[in-house]
Structure formats: C-alpha cells, structure tokens
C-alpha cells in the first residue's frame, strides 16, 4: 500500500484531526495534505461530496470523516475488532458528529442570528450532548469510550472538547464542558498527556 494521503484544511482540529492523530499515534506514515482556504474553491469540485476530509489510498478516494476514522483506526490498531466494542466506538464518534454539525452549521449566519442560535444550542442540545457523552464514558469505566483502551472515539471526543474549550466558538461559554461534563475534561486531559499526542503538537508548535 502506498502512503495514505489525508486531505484536510490547514487547521489543527475539526473533522480531519482524528485521523491525523490516529496515524501519528499508530506510526502509520501518511501524507498530510493541508489545503489552504484560498485554494479550496479550486479543489472542491474534485472531492466526492464537495467537502473535506478525504483520504486517498492507492489512487482511490474516500470521503466522510467517521468512515475515514474507522478505516484509519483499523490501519493503526485504534479501532476495536469486537463488533460490539466497534459499535460503542462508532456511537461516540457519531454523537460528536451530530452535535458538532449543528454547532458548525451556524458559522455563516448573520451575527445576531449566530449569537441567538449558539446561545440556544449551548444551553440546550450541546449541554445535553455533553452530559450524555459523559454518561457513556462513565458507563464504560470512565477512561475510554470502547474496548477498555484508546480508540479513534477517544481521539474524536478529545478534539471536540478541545475545540469547545478553545474560545474559537463565539457565544459558546468556554467553560461549558468543565461545568456540564467534568469527566470529559479529565478524559481530554488524559489524551492530551499521551506521549505521541504531546510530541506531535510540540513539533507543530501548537499549544494544546
Ligand atoms: N459529513 C461530512 C461533512 C464534511 C464537511 O462539511 N466538511 C467541512 C469542513 S469540516 C467542509 O469541507 N467545508 C467546506 C465546504 O463545504 O465547502 C464529513 O463528516 O466528512
């Protein structure tokens, strides 16, 4: 197999970051094709759904972030073999996808509407989602979402919690995860301390 190429925006987060982290942790060499926003219009038509991330392997392309995460998880040993544990891993990844899609869909709204929608999401569906994710983590032992070990689900939740606490989302209180889901914040801090994760962000000079 040739080196997989992950194509995603030149940002250290969001939908492409889970697969990047998985390949770093699993030591699978890959081409990290970081698309500048200025170049996106020219590249968009050649992607399967007009969106990123996409993964290219042996001249073929696949889209959809969670499908990519599963594939990369299998390459890196970060996806459960057991079908039930795999379903739990998917559950957490899909839960993050569901709520993050709602939050990110406010991005291009006019300022006043964005504020109103984000405040309403933060107080309602986002808090609810964080609470429910936390309960699932606790129900499975409090350390990992599936298989009693680090999987791509943990990486996806880590990236999401990091984003929520980063201050990049106007009108979403940065302390929302700490208030609503402290066990998810503990989980985030554990993943952050993973040797390969620390080394990766240090090399990229990104504060996490
Ligand atoms: N369901 C898709 C959503 C992909 C998506 O919306 N990606 C965003 C970036 S996170 C994008 O490409 N936005 C640019 C555009 O739609 O033109 C997935 O999970 O990969």
SSE topology:
Blueprint: E1 5-9, H1 17-25, E2 31-35, H2 37-43, E3 54-57, E4 60-63, H3 65-76, H4 83-104, H5 111-139, H6 152-165, H7 176-180, H8 182-192, H9 195-203
Parallel strand pairs: 1-2
Antiparallel strand pairs: 1-3, 3-4
Bound molecules: glutathione.
In short:
By secondary structure, the chain is α+β, with helices and mostly antiparallel strands. It is built from 9 helices and 4 strands, in the order E-H-E-H-E-E-H-H-H-H-H-H-H.
Q: Can you characterise this structure?
A:
With 208 residues, the protein is of the alpha+beta class. Helix content is 57%, strand content 9%. The chain is built from 9 helices and 4 strands; from the N terminus they run βαβαββααααααα. The protein has helices at residues 17-25, 37-43, 65-76, 83-104, 111-139, 152-165, 176-180, 182-192, 195-203; strands at residues 5-9, 31-35, 54-57, 60-63. A 4-stranded mixed sheet has the order 2-1-3-4. The relative contact order is 0.13. The structure holds glutathione. Glutathione is lined by residues 14-15, 44, 50-53, 64-65.
């Amino acid at each position: 197999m040739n080196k997989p190429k992950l194509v995603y925006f030149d940002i250290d987060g969001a939908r492409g970051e889970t697969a990047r982290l998985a390949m770093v942790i699993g030591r699978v060499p890959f081409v990290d094709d970081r698309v500048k926003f200025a170049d996106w219009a020219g590249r968009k038509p050649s992607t399967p759904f007009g969106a990123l991330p996409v993964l290219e392997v042996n001249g073929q392309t696949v889209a959809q972030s969670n499908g990519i995460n599963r594939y990369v998880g299998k390459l890196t040993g970060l996806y459960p073999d057991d079908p039930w544990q795999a379903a739990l891993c998917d559950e957490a990844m899909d839960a993050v996808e569901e709520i993050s899609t709602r939050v990110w869909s406010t991005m291009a709204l006019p300022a006043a509407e964005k504020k109103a929608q984000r405040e309403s999401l933060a107080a309602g569906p986002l808090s609810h989602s964080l609470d429910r994710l936390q309960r699932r983590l606790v129900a499975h032992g409090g350390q990992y979402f599936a298989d009693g070990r680090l999987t791509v689900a943990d990486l996806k939740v880590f990236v999401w919690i990091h984003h929520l606490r980063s201050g990049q989302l106007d009108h979403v209180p940065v302390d929302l995860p700490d208030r609503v889901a402290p066990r998810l914040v503990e989980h985030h801090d554990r993943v952050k301390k993973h040797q390969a994760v620390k080394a990766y962000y240090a090399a990229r000079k990104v504060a996490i």
